[in-house]
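Quick one: co-fold with FE2/S2 (inorganic) cluster.
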Amino acid sequence: MSTRPLPEHVTVTIDGTPSRAWAGQSVTAALVTAGVWPVRRNQVNGEPRGPFCGMGVCLECEVTINGLEGARSCTAHVADGMDIRTAAHG
Ligand code: FES
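Sure, here it is.
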């Protein structure tokens, strides 16, 4: 009987706090796993927003990744040392 190898872990920073994630995991999954919600606020009414479609269409999951604003967290994959910033509390 063979066993599947465990996935490798990477360390990302979410709003300045180090967090472990599995290599290859989406940034959305890393945020959800870390208990981060919401990830941004509606620019007009300030309502909390977060991932909805999970496939790059709705833009509700936008965060800043390594300084790049407006990155879709659902289609981005974590990488070791990645800096993820949400706009939920600004
Ligand atoms: S969850 Fe819809 S674009 Fe990311």
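If it helps, The mean pLDDT is 94.
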